[in-house]
Amino acid sequence: MIYLSSFKLSKERINNPNIYPYNVFHGKDVEPFVFSPVTVLYGNNGSGKSTILNIIANKLMLKGKEYATSNSFGSVDYCGRFSSECRFSFGDDESGNTIRKLPENSRFIKSEDILYEIKKIQQRQILADGMEYDYMKNGHSHKEAADYFRTKEGMQQIEYIEFAQEKYSNGETAMQFFEDYLLPDALYLLDEPEVSLSPANQVLLAKEINKLARLLSCQFIIATHSPFMLGTLDSKIYNIDTEDYSICEWYDLENVRYFYDFFKKHESEFER
Peptide bond before 21: cis, by omega within 30 degrees of 0? Predict the structure, then answer.
């Protein structure tokens, strides 16, 4: 399913080329993005791939959008101005009619959202671990603390601790986050979803994204430079590191080639 068919970044120029977000695209010759069911924006740190996702999210008024602020150059809202200058087109529904609005579940999920969820779980764990210590610090003996945790209230606290411990793994928490939020029939913008995921879980998530796009009417626009995601996703890949944001194969990308060259260099060590 293609809900968002294309997106054209502003080509307007301003007098001061250092103002965000105009400075991100200064000197670029970019044609409109034409999206597939799964589209990847690849780029190294600072390339602007996350900025592009946020601009799209703001233009479409997606849940999770983050309104960026420009530099302190007078009272002009340059971020809002840039977004207003961008253009987009919706795709067609199954009957061939142009889509008028995005599905309700559509959202922008940032790497910060995942890290925040992990931080919440970790904070709960720290609080739970300190609960018995605090109980004893108030003058209770170790036996009294143990007796307390046998009461109904204490048992509820133990269940809370067990829940926190079960969810303590960063990777498991991140995978659960995606399981909770990636629902059928929606457009999703994902910014570096590989954060906190092992290579195996990155591949697992990419396979799940392929399934959601292929079978459950989802569309994804993903910013990533993970070779495991890039090599698994059935996607169109825009290379944001190039001046014209050219479409590339995953195995031609710089970050992927770096991994390949590294392991090729150490190939003999794997054969021992």
Answer: yes
* 58: Cβ contacts below 8 Å, ≥ 6 apart: 65, 67, 79, 83
Delimiting residues of CATH 3.40.50 domain(s) in the chain: 4-111+183-267
Minimal CA–CA distance to 50: which of 181, 207, 195?
A: 195
Distance of alpha carbon 249 from its chain centroid, rounded?
21
pTM, to two decimals: 0.79
Structure tokens at 100: 């008028």
Sheet order of strands, 4-8 included: 33-34, 4-8, 87-90
Identify the CATH assignment for 4-111+183-267 out of 1.20.1090, 1.20.1640, 1.10.10, 3.40.50.
3.40.50
Q: What is the pLDDT of residue 178?
A: 84
- The count of other CB atoms within 10 Å of the CB of residue 149 is 16
8 A C-beta contact, residue 210 and residue 127: no
- Give the pLDDT means over successive 10-residue stretches in the chain (272 positions): 95 83 84 96 89 94 79 71 93 87 92 66 49 56 65 67 52 76 93 89 94 96 95 96 93 94 92 78
